[in-house]
Amino acid sequence: MNAFLRLCGLGALMAIALSACSSSSCVDNRVYGCLDADEFRRLLDDEIRQQADERTAAYAEDPAIQQQWGLEAIRVPEAYANLDLALGPDTPPGEGVIVGVLDTGIDTAHFAFEGKNVFELFLPGAIDEDGSGFSHGTAVAGLIAGVDDPDFGFDAPGVAWGADLVVFALPLGTAPELYDPITLDDLPGTSEYFAQTVNEILSWRHEGRSIEFLNLSLGVSGVIDNFSEAQLREHFSAATAAFAQAGADEKVVFIWAAGNAHGTPCDVAVVECVDGAVDAVSPGLLAGLAARLPELRGHTVSVVAIGQDGEITGFSNRCGVAAEHCLAAPGGSVRVAYFGPFEDGPGRGAATGGGTSFAAPMVTGGLALMKQHFRGQLAGTDLLARLLETADRTGHYADAEIYGRGLMDLGAATSPVGAETVAVGGRVDGPGATLRQTSLELGSAFGDSVALSLAGREMVTFDSLGAPFWRPAGHVATLAPGPSQVTRLRELLVGAIPAPDRTPEAALPILLFSESPRTGEAAPALRLMESPGSATARASHVGLAGKSLVLTVPIAASLSATALTTEGMDNPGTMPDTSLVSLVWQLPDVPGRFRVGRMAEPRSLLGAVADGAFGRLSAGTTFAGLEADARLGGWRLGFNAEAGTVSTGAREGLLDGISDISTSAFSLHADRSTRRGGAFRVSLSQPLRTESGRAELDLPVGRTKSGEVVRDAVALGLEPSGRQLDLELHWQQPLGRGTLHLGAVLSREPGHRGDEDPDLTVLSGWT
Q1: CATH classification of the domain holding 198
Q2: What is the pLDDT of residues 145-159, one digit of tens each?
Q3: How far apart are CA 700 and CA 111, in angstroms?
Q4: What is the pTM for the complete model shown?
């Protein structure tokens, strides 16, 4: 049970209390208390960022990650943290994604692959590696998806250690000591070989699954600069056609090692030989094909290697003419899974190695992690485009001739780029509103109804690159508060025990153009109502209004009309405009009144306000009420009840098909005079509450790879789980030149929330 106690002994002190929190513009929540809706969303964003920072720090301190300097360089800890927030704690990175590796083969018995799904296929001429030579493919595969197992000597995980692997083994030679570039005469044979190999790889299936990324840490000697587009189309057409994948529904992404030719000894007759060493200003022939052949762009990337100092390594080819399709990643002195010669026989463990062969799998693993992070809703080509777009281009990485698009940044690639948008149209790039603009601030009559309907549901937003990001749908639907302690205090100090002839509509009149009409006087009265905020008024639809201009016109001895509007009044910016007309009929020979009325909300619905992707709300409410007074001994007894039917409108947004809504409110009160001019009051009231109604929310939940928005039609029940009942006690006593007020309010199921604890407010003040 919460309790609030405030003593206001001076008017100035009360003014300070009034400035502390405005009930009309705050969002009630169990964590932060009373907040402006924008501030509430900002704090939620800050909380998400704090969680991400805490998880990032934890991953950065993981000894296994610290063993591989390159993971920190490409911000893998941030990516793992983002993955945890998106899919749940300790989600295996890359889980559910299948990655292809074209290399020498793999030692499936290596501890780095224990418990993993690893498939190995032997292409013509390939043999199963026996450890008599260094297994290049084992090292490459471990950087993509190896598991951390320090007990068995592999002490650094692969980037996407939860991914599955398919290793296509082929015979690979070693580079000659003297640089020997491929010639035009050699191209046709090489083209046929790669065409056959790639087509076989692309046709691989296992239980309906195929590879989505292919790592190619291999190449042929020679840089792409030495070959024109025309020469390649004439001499390398078969391989080009295989790499292009024309007609494929979704293209496999090729990740190439740029080459290790820079600085290699060479014959001075070779064009790229400078002072006896190769000046590899661009990637090798295969890695650089996209620079010459447009049909390979978008699903081909070349990877150059940086060292621990963050600079390009001495051995790595540069990006050069392939800069638009080139990326930098760690490749110098990295930890790799080792299978090969060791003392008297083959050994398994970990080693340190260098080469663009080890930079490329960093990128391949990153793409696999991204595929998982975005729940498979982005095509491989979109993932590659995103990875290139989000690369770090600060400082020396801005030198495109060397680093191409920059240093791979997996943290940025898994974070929103630009403002997140909630889609309203059918496509990701169609109409929408920013997440910051999008909100549904519910009126207190709805209680927790919408929150319950959205519990456990997610909605998707899209960043400026079209990538999906999910968050709890309830974060954009904020619960309205009940009256704040300041409002309760104001009620206590100004008219909480009204005179017998005062109606809810005239609870707080301030005379403008006439004297206050006496009982039975048939004169119109124009008043400024500062607030309808009393327990009696809250048990009425008029409680939705703020500061209002009120006109009361007597029609006959027993009939009067009242018109009310908040238009043009100095209400808080979040309070919607409301207009109301009502007729009050004094029942003959009975101490009671019957009233009917119509309330118009042009931009709200029972106080609920929609913005951004939720569109606009409007409502017209027809209500009827009965109030009665009676005296019993020294007590004045009162009763007030209202019921309404709301016709609704929703346009230009996600809300659709809102049904008519029924509402109710009531109050019972008993007053009596006490000694020396004092008074005491006890009341029981139910604030305005929705009794029935439904709405449909066209909730965006994902996207297709072609860019269509996927939606769920969510039925929103508009009846809250609880029914708020307020038991209020108020005692007032003239004291000196003013009046002392003491009061207490006990609320059952506050906010019409069935699981909410009772709330006790104790108040005191002096006027």
Answers
A1: 3.40.50.200
A2: 999 876 655 678 999
A3: 43
A4: 0.87
